[in-house]
Amino acid sequence: MKDSYKEADRMYDVLCDEHHLFQMLSRFGIPLGFGEKNVREVCKESDVDVTTFLAVANYVKVGPEVASYYVDKISAAALTDYLKRAHSYFLDFQLPDIRRRLVSSINCSDANEVAFLILQFFDEFMRDVRHHMEAENNKMFKSVDRLLQGGSISDTQFLQFAHSNESFNHKLQELKNLIIKYYKGDGPNELLNMVLFDLFNCEEDLQLHRGVENDLFLPAVELLMERTKGQPLQKNENDESLSEREREIVICIARGMSNKDVADKLFISVNTVLTHRKNIFRKLDIHSISGLTIYAVVNGLITLDEIRDRK
Questions:
Q1: Is residue 159 a contact partner of residue 305, using CB atoms and an 8 Å limit?
Q2: Distance between CA atoms of residues 68 and 219, nearest Å
Q3: What residues form DSSP beta bridges with 10?
């Protein structure tokens, strides 16, 4: 790939070219002090898969268009470890540190309602991020670990996150707007300006993190599932009980189509769609659209890309 980082590049040059990669080092468990060594040598010393390192580094440098080149080459285990460390960085270091400095930079007295709202908003944001990342740690990553140990595809809960992986950017944007537009301090506030600068960096970092999950990690795990089973995706025995029309409706629903859209596409009435839906949920013993979406992916009726594209 043109203008991308290579194994033979000096690690020092790579980091100086793209300073965002300094955070990436700790997430791969790579210490500083590597002298003149190249990327391959540094990764080998830290027992890091060099292809996975380059995949993330070039994703940061170039963007999502590099993902397709790396998906079938990277290590799902190495990327899982990277994402776990990233979660620890956000939850145990970056966000608590920003909160401490935010408290120090605003007037938190009872009389200052805007300051109270700012802190309340940030705490809600932190809570949501923690809830989401801890759920990934406890479900998605553990499921991938089981896959890496030869576990069954039916154990993988990560498909839920392909459907529900959320962005926190809008909440950070609202928080920044609240501070910039409505908080009136007693004069120049260098500390608060530094907090705002860190919030912008945090927003960018979270966006990159989500991109690595969606564009590199989830497709890599999907490939791992295929290789583990020796087939595209494991078929559920209940799938045989669905008629061809019911399969068509499952696909439409999983793609996010409304009942009317399904009816128009298949040239049937809305009432007929509702009847089919009722029968589908009964046959599969599924009780939600999310559950039906997971069923459709696991049984090869739709792909993860189709779920992401409907956002």
A1: no
A2: 9
A3: 38
Residue 30 is which amino acid? I
- Model pLDDT for residues 206-253, shown as the tens digit of each residue: 999 989 998 899 888 877 777 766 544 444 444 447 888 899 999 999
Lookup: tokens for 124: 């809600």
Whether domain 237-309 has CATH 1.10.10.10:
yes
pLDDT tens digits, one per residue of 112-150: 788 888 998 899 999 999 988 998 898 888 888 877 877
Query: 3-state secondary structure string, the chain?
Result: CCCCCCCCCEHHHHHHHCCCHHHHHHHHCCCCCCCCCEHHHHHHHCCCCHHHHHHHHHHHHCCHHHHHHHCCCCCHHHHHHHHHHHHHHHHHHHHHHHHHHHHHHCCCCCCCHHHHHHHHHHHHHHHHHHHHHHHHHHHHHHHHHHHHCCCCHHHCCCHHHHHHCCCCHHHHHHHHHHHHHHCCCCCCCHHHHHHHHHHHHHHHHHHHHHHHHHHHHHHHHHHHHHHHHCCCCCCCHHHHHCCHHHHHHHHHHHCCCCHHHHHHHHCCCHHHHHHHHHHHHHHHCCCCHHHHHHHHHHCCCCCHHHHHHCC
Mean of all residue pLDDT scores within the chain: 84
Cβ contact 27:82 at 8 Å? yes
> Mean per-residue pLDDT for 169-190?
83
* CB-count burial class (<10 Å; 0-12, 13-18, 19+) for 23: middle
Q: What is the pLDDT of residue 240?
A: 47
